[in-house]
TrEMBL record:
This is Xanthine dehydrogenase molybdenum binding subunit apoprotein. Keywords: 2Fe-2S, Iron, Iron-sulfur, Metal-binding, Oxidoreductase. GO terms for molecular function: 2 iron, 2 sulfur cluster binding; iron ion binding; molybdenum ion binding; oxidoreductase activity. It comes from the Bacteria. SUPFAM superfamilies: CO dehydrogenase molybdoprotein N-domain-like, Molybdenum cofactor-binding domain. NCBIfam families: xanthine_xdhB (TIGR02965). Residues 38-145 form the Aldehyde oxidase/xanthine dehydrogenase a/b hammerhead domain. Belongs to the xanthine dehydrogenase family. InterPro entries: Ald_Oxase/Xan_DH_a/b, Ald_Oxase/Xan_DH_a/b_sf, Ald_Oxase/xanthine_DH-like, AldOxase/xan_DH_MoCoBD1, AldOxase/xan_DH_MoCoBD2, AldOxase/xan_DH_Mopterin-bd_sf, Xanthine_DH_Mopterin-bd_su. Its cofactor is [2Fe-2S] cluster; Mo-molybdopterin cytosine dinucleotide; FAD; Mo-molybdopterin.
Amino acid sequence: MNTQTEAFLNDKNLAKDNADWAEVGKSHPHESAILHVLGEARYTDDIPEVQGTLHAALGLSSKAHANIVSMNFDAVKSARGVVAVYTAKDIPGTNDCGPIIHDDPILSEGLVEYVGQPIFIVVADTHDNARRAVRKAEIVYEELAAILTPQEAKKAQSFVLPPMRLQRGDAQAAFERSPRRVKGELYVGGQEQFYLEGQISYAIPKEDRGMLVLCSTQHPSEMQHVVAHALGVHSHNIVVECRRMGGGFGGKESQSALWAAAAAISAVHLKRPVKLRADRDDDMMVTGKRHCFHYDYEVGYDDEGRIIAARVEMVSRAGFSADLSAPVATRAVCHFDNTYYLGDVDIRAMCGKTNTQSNTAFRGFGGPQGAIAIEYIVDNIARDLNKDALEIRKINFYGRNDEEGRNVTQYGQKVVDNVIHELVAELETSSEYQQRRADIKAFNASSPVLKKGLALTPVKFGIAFNVTHLNQAGALVHIYTDGSVLVNHGGCEMGQGVNTKVCQVVAHELGLNLDKVRATATDTSKVANTSATAASTGADLNGKAAQNAAHTLRQRLAEFAVKTYGGELADIRFAAGLVSVNGLDIPFEALVQKAYLARVQLWSDGFYATPGLHWDPKTMSGNPFSYYAYGASVSEVIVDTLTGEWKLLRADGLYDAGNSLNPAIDIGQVEGAFIQGMGWLTTEELWWNKGGKLMTHAPSTYKIPAISDCPEDFRVSLFKNRNVQDSIHRSKAVGEPPLLLPFSVFFAIRDAIASVADYRYNPPLNAPATSEAILSAINGVAAMAAAS
């Protein structure tokens, strides 16, 4: 490579190119926004059906743990419109859809392990006929004892994976020198992903054992692998495509595989297209949720509230199979510190095997479950010392740079670019936290029934997949002779704007306006071996891969321009649809047309692998994250102490998106994550009856936040920062970290409850803090006060 080309490839030179012009960093609307509003955005169920399409439904177990003694499908087969019934013996290849460990059958082979486990497939001429027919099966069970809670799983030593343990220092010795201790337990419930578009797959047979699977999924490559294994064919026989999802939130990372496989199995037998769309009830009964966690904790601290030693045992409800429980637990262990330096720790995590749906990924992926435990502990310490929790949080923050050695996590990664001090200070001022704290105490003193609460909570969240090899991405960029550009990458659009951001990156790289660049459906035949769109890495990985491809094209066009018009390669500028070369401003499309005639390649692939990552699962140590995103929020609530009802009055959020690629989309993601996380901690309660049946399996029984639950005063801003790591345009991820911001809502509610007894006692409040749970905690605090 000559020196001119090296200069051209230099990032500083690119920044100079676009000093007064840019397509990144702007608040462009979502690329499908108009289609969404007009109802023209096409989801999997909107795709016109191929002639001869049939519809499938799954027959589900009615028992939590049982052997199947017999199955009679006579009434099913004679039902209206039924074409076929398939069981495990009809699967041509491997009966498995587990993403890591092969312990998750597509269809039960005789043992059912939760209410809702698929046993058979019915294929009929219509969706309704298939659904009605599955209910006619006669199945005889031999029931077995069932385990339903993480506490029961721990007692029975029932785990889907071996327990994990991370130790640093000597926790026992640290406890012995701690002047004070606090210990207790906490339960935090799970959460249904409740994507607006349910699970759906549409399998269309192709020639020579081929299969096209149109699937609402966050992981097309995994769907390709699962379907190939289920059909007993090579991956190259299967093409999986996803243009967009109507929400995913982790629920379509691994668990879309069951639906893709079932549709494909039916289609390959019948040699006809088969669509499998889950109704909401079936979706919620079959699929896994966010893991609920039970914690036993103990922390030693000094008279100032500085944490000296910490011990915690976390047990999750994994469900009947491993699914993604191992990496979820790993991330929970790695996020137990949140924003706090913990010197001597003993952290244990267990994935309890229960006879319930196999729990899976959910926005935050264990990070929220890890971090909320330490926040609960800090909240307890503050009340025990009669101090403001914000004061305790500040003195426990990670240090700046190498301040007193307090900038290394419990798993050994150094925390660089720690901006939590500055970010919290800015939010404390902008939210008028101190004045409102005083005002609220005055209000509570004169209000016997209605009580207000206030809390400020911080966030530090690591960005990258726990599993190092998943941190890679590919992309294809095509320039057409009219100057328009088509991008294909491995990320999946689920409303979060990854296509918009990737198109912005490509447009910026080629000096084009955004309307000249378009993204196509994610397709395993275009970019192979992709990672899931998860772990907040969608824009980071795919943006870098697309930038790499676009940069190659830019270099080719620049070299051609110099050859055609003269000048120096280092002096060429691509901006605002023009290519400036040797004193001339050539329209981009004109240069492209000339390049085509000169047989210059006008398409390129791109690739990116995140550098510097490593992780040892045996020692639970390493450098698992590329960087950290930070944030903080302040919430003010009012609670009716007679009913337990509450309302969020105001929320202030400040989030570190680095050098944001698209501020409007990022702010929208922060707002959405805040409300979704608030739902997890307050209203969204999953409840199984004694027989192991999930009773909250529809909107009528499962309460997600509505518009009326959003605060009338909702202030969200982006913290001015620039990623120290070489992320895409020095931006930071915004998918998962903001879900931890509504911790402040939970602790504001706890603050309001504590005011019932003049803030002297720690309210026994678990999550979700439903009105019933709030009322119970109020009664608990009142009882403590009366007993003293």
